[in-house]
Amino acid sequence: MAIEIDIKTVEEIEVVELSGDVDASTAPDVQKQVLPLAKPGSKILMDMTQVPYMSSAGLRMLLSMYRQTQAKEGKLVLVGLSEELQDTMSVTGFLDFFTTCEKREDGIAALK
Questions:
Q1: CA neighbor of 16 nearest in space, from 54, 40, 41, 51
Q2: pTM assigned to the model
Q3: Is there a contact between 106 and 73 (Cβ–Cβ < 8 Å)?
Q4: What are 21-38's pLDDT values in tens digits?
């Protein structure tokens, strides 16, 4: 299944909307489009509301995004993680790295 990636800027925040599964076949596309957003002081909100499934490749992509953003003193917030994704990220310890919010408005507020 293909993934849709929609990137727009809202009040100096790069909002990345993902729609579809993030797995071994789609994670490289996501990384290629989203990683360049990690600039010094960048604020990135990843809206995962439409992501029903994420494989380990997707988790690696997220960790890579996190590291790039941190290295450049930027901020990264994940919004709308499904319960299943939250459970997976919690068990693997990934959740500890990320600021997560349920709603996009909360995520934008967290980045300001």
A1: 51
A2: 0.94
A3: no
A4: 999 999 999 999 999 999
Q: Each residue of 78-107: b (16+ CB within 10 Å) or e?
A: bbbbeeebeebbeeeebbeebebbeebeeb
Distance from C-alpha of 52 to C-alpha of 43, rounded to nearest angstrom:
24
C-beta atoms surrounding 12 within 10 Å: 10
The answer to whether residues 72 and 51 touch, using CB atoms and an 8 Å cutoff, is no
CB–CB of 47/16 below 8 Å?
yes
In contact, 1 and 24? CB cutoff 8 Å: no
Domains in the chain with CATH codes: 4-111 (3.30.750.24)
Half-sphere exposure of 6 (CA within 13 A, CB side): 11
CB atoms within 10 A of CB 109: 11
* Residues of the chain where predicted confidence (pLDDT) is lower than 70: 1
